[in-house]
Design brief:
single chain; 7-stranded parallel sheet; 7 strands
């Protein structure tokens, strides 16, 4: 029997990269998937692949920076599938660069698409998650880098998500909602862009990973999300889990 049979999962930023890989893995494990994103054609492609594999999915256009869009998204998913058991907050605009490189607008976009969107969507989904729900937020080990140059703004918004995760885990545990945050390294358009534009740093980056590779979006990240949402991980709550081949030390 599939471990997530008949569960309903809402995944933001599911049109590509990590979000898409998570959506594929959840569907393969039996979940009904609501794939959301700003570009409808991308999440429709994700859903078409899920359906081609025999799964069930619906594409929902959603801008996580807008409260009204988030509210409508949740209402659409509940109307289609009858509830929400799993929430994956993956969508994020990345404020990359040095402190002088990052504009106020870029930092604000990072905040609104990251911590604020996570905060809002967790609360919107809370009534449906009560009883046996799982929240998976996406953070980063960027704030734990040995050299924070060029990563301060990105690390700041991701650390905000980590703290929200811990707060939700502590406050909502009595509702039997488990909340955890993943800190992944995985193949994605964003990582590919970074490697192409920072070849020397990228070389050192790969050397710093004990497994000498970044993760596959579905096989390494998505399947771990399946485990974390299943009954096999029913006592795991409030944790920051690095999926990075052993690079980060979070102690």
């Amino acid at each position: 029997m599939k471990p997530l049979k008949d569960k309903v999962a809402l995944v933001t930023g599911a049109g590509q990269g990590v979000g898409q890989g998570i959506a594929f893995a959840l569907a393969s494990a039996g979940a009904k998937v609501a794939a959301t994103g700003r570009t409808l054609s991308k999440v429709e492609a994700t859903c078409q692949e899920i359906e081609a594999r025999g799964g069930e999915a619906v594409a929902v256009e959603c801008d996580v920076k807008q409260l009204q869009s988030l509210t409508q998204c949740v209402e659409t998913v509940v109307a289609r599938f009858g509830g929400i058991n799993i929430l994956v907050n993956n969508a994020q605009e990345v404020p990359s660069g040095t402190l002088f490189d990052v504009s106020d607008d870029a930092f604000e976009a990072g905040w609104h698409s990251g911590p604020l969107a996570t905060f809002r969507l967790m609360k919107l989904c809370h009534p449906y998650l009560k009883g046996d729900g799982s929240i998976i937020n996406l953070g980063s080990s960027a704030a734990k880098r040995w050299d924070a140059s060029g990563y301060a703004c990105y690390g700041a918004v991701k650390e905000g998500i980590r703290q929200l995760t811990r707060g939700a885990a502590c406050e909502w545990g009595l509702d039997n909602i488990r909340t955890n945050v993943l800190l992944p390294h995985a193949k994605s358009p964003g990582l590919n862009w970074w490697i192409e534009n920072n070849p020397e740093e990228a070389t050192e980056f790969f050397k710093s990973i004990p497994l000498r590779r970044v993760g596959e979006c579905e096989e390494d990240i998505g399947r771990f999300v399946v485990l974390l949402c299943s009954d096999d991980a029913r006592y795991v709550n409030g944790q920051s889990i690095a999926l990075d081949g052993g690079q980060a030390y979070l102690g």
